[in-house]
Amino acid sequence: MVKKAEVINLNFSYTDKKVLNSVSLPIYENRITALIGPSGCGKTTLLRCFNRMHDLYGSVKYDGQINLFPDQLNILSKEIDPIEVRMKIGMVFQKPNPFPKSIYENIAYGLRVRGVKKKSFIDEKIEDSLKKAGLWKEVEDRLHTSATALSGGQQQRLCIARALATEPDILLLDEPTSALDPISTAHIEELVTELKNAVTIVMVTHNLHQAARTADFTSFMYLGKMIEFGESSQIFTNPKEQKTENYITGRFG
Amino acid sequence: MAIQSEFSTPQSMKRRWRNFKESFIHLLLLVCAGSSVLVTFGVIYTLVSEAMPFFLEVPIKNFLFDTEWTPLFENPQYGIMNLISGTLLTTVIALIIAIPLGTVAAVFLSEYCSNQVREFFKPLLELLAAVPTVVYGYFALLFVTPILQKIIPSLESFNALSAGIVMGIMIIPYVSSLSEDSMRAVPLYLREGSLAMGASKLQTSFKVIVPAAFSGIASAYVLGISRALGETMVVAIAAGLQARLSLNPLQSTQTLTAYIVQVSMGDLPQGSIGYRTIYVSGLVLLLFTLSFNLIGQSIRARMEKKYK
Ligand SMILES: Nc1ncnc2c1ncn2[C@@H]1O[C@H](COP(=O)(O)OP(=O)(O)OP(=O)(O)O)[C@@H](O)[C@H]1O
Ligand SMILES: [Mg+2]
Fold it and tell me: What are the C-alpha distances in Å from A182 to residues A131, A152, A160, A210, B214?
């Protein structure tokens, strides 16, 4: 197994509230890593460090490293442009957020932002990423209609396709199914499992079954600390830490 | 105390009183809404009824194709295109200034500046709209025109260019204020979605925020156009009173509105054909404003249907 990234001693605070406390964990290439833990423990905060989303808002402080392999590039370093980081690391949000544009333009967006002009290339990429996101059959004859007319589940798959079109090194998913019905959820879970052949995935989820079903690795966080990291099979059947066991058996959280 | 638990019968006092109140309020609202419609129709009725006799005397052909607009001369000509060209010329110049600057100001206020900076700039910008238009008129005539004449020596002292530019500055806040409101109403998750794709702030602003807010921005543009078409003092003071069929911004020109003030300040006998031209000009102006509003509305409806 090859490491795609590595978080080392990451500390993070909003204004005066410390939210992440010396968090470290590896992210393995072409594997799914799930972040679980009770509400407010810092999962979203950690995930958003990967693409420097916090830089958009003032009054946050962080230190530590997130090294991206094989170049061993510390993406938290002030010398690195957050836009370059976001070019390499895609993100899908909790609530589907397609742009109010056509399906075609939604997926072309990332390519256009990167300066791609060639129409044949864009067309090809659009078909390719829609196929990867399992949406091609449903939308191939309506690519130029509005993306916001799609169902919630379709919109979320569109957002995944949008992120895939630019071939990110890592795909971040923040509770990607929490706004969806069970059928769309199952669809996305299946999709995520297939996608790991193409991309490394880090996924926040509140659904422990989802983590157990889809993730290769799971890390349990509690009050801003990384309590336990391991293969999902081990975390869910034979946790080493008492706190992990309490959480997965539903005794708190 | 028991919260009302039985259904009241249709005859019960309470229910009848409530129904009465409801219908009274309904009526009141109807009257309020109706009165504005009534005023509009009143204006249209006055314009049309006063303008009608004009067309009984002046053939439409002359009205549209005469090369001069000289209703008060010995041998009057009634070529309305002279006034229309002046109106469109000053309006277009104003929009060339107001639309880009207003949009950029809106993008800056909505996407780039901190709350404190916005609190500082917004009132300043809105002050532009609070200055009396007569002040703008003299500002154009006595300040802008002399400066422009240094650059363009052939510029006449009364000219469409200077009046149009100043009018443009005047309507910037109309364009920016409404545009900014609708851009700020674009949800944060669209901004984050765009930035997470690796887009810069500039790309996010113009490729996501502006299109997403387009229906509000289009309304802002239509408002700006209506203001420019209807503006009177600036053009009457700085653009001159010379009606002419020309799109040369360096010459003096007359707009529909400027003609109306010019003529209504004289003492034309009521009912004379010269007097009627006031209403005719007003009617033409109304038609223009109305059609721009309709065009704006249909563009907006189309955008909303497409990208809702
Ligand atoms: N913008 C912010 N400013 C200040 N504090 C914040 C901000 N965002 C989050 N927090 C705080 O940071 C802590 C961690 O939040 P975070 O969103 O990372 O939790 P989470 O694990 O994703 O929770 P959930 O499962 O509810 O999504 C919480 O206590 C939260 O109140
Ligand atoms: Mg969260």
Answer: 22, 12, 18, 11, 35
